[in-house]
Amino acid sequence: MITKSNIIRHIAVALDCSPHSMASLTAAAEIARLMHADLTGIFVEDINLLRMAELPFCHEIRMYTTEPEKIDSSQLERSLKLQARAAHEALQRIAEKFMLKHSFRICRGMVPAEVILAAVDADLLVLGRSGRSPTCRKGLGSTAKKALTEGKKPVLLIRPGFSVKKWPLLVLYDGSDGSKKALTIALDLAHPGITLNVLILGETHEEGMMMELKLSETIIPPLHSIIFYHQLPLNNLKTLSRAIRLVDSGLLVLSENMNISREAVHKLIDEIDYPVLLV
Amino acid sequence: MAIPSKLTPEELYRICNPLEFSFNTTAELDGPVKTTGQERAFEAITFSMGIKQNGFNLFALGPNGTGKQSAIMHFLSDITPGAPVPSDWCYVNNFDKPRHPKALRLPAGKACSLSSNMEHLLEVLFTVIPAAFSSDEYQAQEKDIREKFQEQQAEAIGELEKNATEHHVALIRTPAGFAFAPEKDGEVLKPEEFMMLKKEERESIEEKIVELKTAMQSIMAQIPKWQRETQEKIKDLNRNIASFAVKPLMAEVRKNFETLEEVVLYLETVETDLIENFAQFLEKESDPRELIPGIFSGKFLQKGPAFNRYRVNVIVDNSNTKGAPIVYEDKPACHNLVGDIEHIAQMGTLVTDFTLIKHGALHRANGGYLLIDARRLLAEPFAYEALKKALRTRQIRIESLAQLYSLVSTVSLEPEAIPLDVKVILLGERHLYYLLSVYDPDFTELFKVAADFEDELSGDFDGKLTYARIISSIVEKDNLHHFDRSAVARVVEQGSRLAGDATKLTAHIQSICDLVHESDYYATAASREIVLADDVQHAIDAKIFRSSRISEKIREATLRNSILIDTESETIGQINGLAIYSLAGQSFGHPARITARVRLGKGDVIDIEREVELGGPIHSKGVMILSGYLGARFGIQQPLSLSASLVFEQSYSGVEGDSASSAELYALLSAISGAPIRQWFAVTGSVNQNGEVQAIGGVNEKIEGYFDLCKARGLTGKQGVLIPISNTVNLMLRNDVVAAVRQGLFSIFPVSVVDEGIEILTGIPAGELDKTGKYPPNTINGMAVARLTEMAEKLKIFNASSDDN
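^ inputs. structure came back:
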């Protein structure tokens, strides 16, 4: 039988006041409420910024100011403290709203490393797909990338506009242990009445059908929820990416220990612009 | 001189013979009421309504209640059905200048159609526009444009970042922008690490950072431009999508009005505005504070006032009008005439828009006829001026009075003026017409035609038949009992009485209408199906009784001798004059004692009423005429050596009119000649310097007033009244007076000259000059001359002795 595991008791969320991180905080709070978990906010004071401020030739280039300006260390310290306070207040507000047990930590260092380190005790790390990175890139931010490759799993990458409560879930299932775990955690996140999409990746159509049959017999869905099974013969990553977009679900739940290579999984996550829970 | 004969009963009351009528009851009369005797007024109306030039508006003048309005309405209802139906008018938003709403002219019945078309269009747009903007196609295109901007930005910065990384420089996001710093293995170098580098390396890094900064600055400078371009692209896309959604719907509406150039132009501006402001149709719910419950109707208006600008405010809807409109404005206040711009209080502020423009009577009557009561018009502040302005400029310009006079300081509108083509008919009393003609130079320019309604109708058969038809129409209209022909005859007789002329009928239709209603009441009370002459008589008597309190009080005071009126003896220098009292539309007559006294003097007649300022100018004039008469008659041979004084006894308020001047002259002649006057007579009539007795008003009431007193004291057969012979035609006396005359208990003498009257009053002939130029001694004139000669002698002696002393 595949049912809820309730393994997530402590959730860490990276906060930097960017829109992605605020979305992460909301998603983390929703999950914490759902699973009766604790919530820890992590704010990292970027050591690179502080070091740069001490270099005499480093200047700040602003979008609406013609001349670059010298970065003032003390001013930078002050603005980081203000950011931290804003992040803490945001955490307090949302924790009060969802009635959560919560804590807040401020670290100083390289952001990706400090986030991963601070979240080492957590059962789930939640962070934005991209943060305050300079290039406004479409794909993953540096912290998200590092969390994918080096961090503890599960990790949840969020983008603004997503709600755990309202959006359906999509689980990649290929019969591997990793995908079974992904399905279990997906059931943990599933509210009563939710739509659960399962994308079955079989070598052949027959294998896929077999997996679907087995799953439909063993899975215990949440109350009033609907499960849709989708079949996709696993050919290549592009097809998979297109299929995920076609299902157009909310949160994609997958494991890095599937029949697909780890790198391929990371690449897939980088390419698709969806919130992802990597187990 | 022969004294005139008493008037016969037939001369006192002109009977209307019911047998003159061919009908039995008014139920048999079903033809239209054709008023006779108003040909002059109808000619004026026909002329005014027919002439198209400016300023030939009409003033219908005549006393209230003469049926001017009904007659004009009746006349207009004959000519208007054939006239063309005027256009519809509506106000729409002026998208370029919202403070100046546009007026649109449409063929009759089309304005409402345009309004409902627009309502329907907007309702549909609330579905169509959101559908277009939530389509996959739009979402994909918009996303594509935004992503392109992101990519453009990311690409430029990414290139720079790559370049920086190659030279071991990190691009870092600062709280407010970007910065470059030397790095090693992804970490920014600490200052001490940087200083440990070779000088050349440090310089190279610093140079590189300067170069990167410059490059970054140029990218930063580009970003606003890219943002603008992206916004433009999105705007174009939105416009295209909105246009795609709006155009087919607008085309449908335009097709319905394709022949109306003005409307098509307006619809084009609506289309442009809809496309520009499509976003308002995407908002899910408007701010509840913007909603004004109870003010607006229509489904789409619930979306908020922003959508009002697409509404059509129908000012004039002639969809159900047949021919030219006839409008009677009962309350001609300024805003009811030219329209108004209303305001509503919203969040403590007064706001308005073109949908709050309210039409006036001029809008409704445009292309037709507008009837206004002149007195009410003049009583309304600014209304007359507003009407004149509209007629002078031939357009209706709506102006908020409060705004015009700075009573409220808030945003208001200046709606486009609407061309005016209307005939205005003012209804009013004569004095209003004459006052306006004298004091207002504009009036004669704008109201060039006067329809002067007669106060009386001819008393011939046509006039009587008109009365019968009027009674019939009142009965039909007010659902009363029909009148039999005797009742009609009685109403006709009362019409003559009200006209004060036995040969005429009053044109005061309101009085006739009241009499009809009152007669119906008594017929109903008597459970009759038909109103009879008795009911009419009952109504007349009851009305007199209801208003007779004061006359009875005066008569009672006279009977108790509180007011001294002698009706039995003969007295020198004392006569019964006849006064008339008018109170609240009711008149009654009553005798008043006039006395005259003479003494030695210089020939002047003192009017005591005038001396104490209780006499009006006409009364004073009448008394002065007496001096002229006496001078001419007795002052030719010798100067008048007397002074006479005249007084209305027991008069405690003003006396006006000259109807007592003959009575005063009789009293004077009696006083001078020493001949006593028979007090059982009463006298009315004015007199001129030649001694001719002239007509007076209220003869019936005066005779009846004296008759009532005599009757109360007991009719002796001697009592009577002297009236001017020219008033004989005015006699329509009460039945009891006529009956008394018939029985010889009361007399009425028509007098043409004073000499006739004095003979009746004294029993002594007045006397005429003989061949020697002298009056016979036993005549009034002879006695007067003798007395005057005696007084002259006395005066002469007195003057001589005074000179000696």
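Chain A has two domains: 10-49+78-158, 169-278. Residues 240 and 246 of chain A are 10 Å apart (CA to CA).
thumbs up if we can close this ticket
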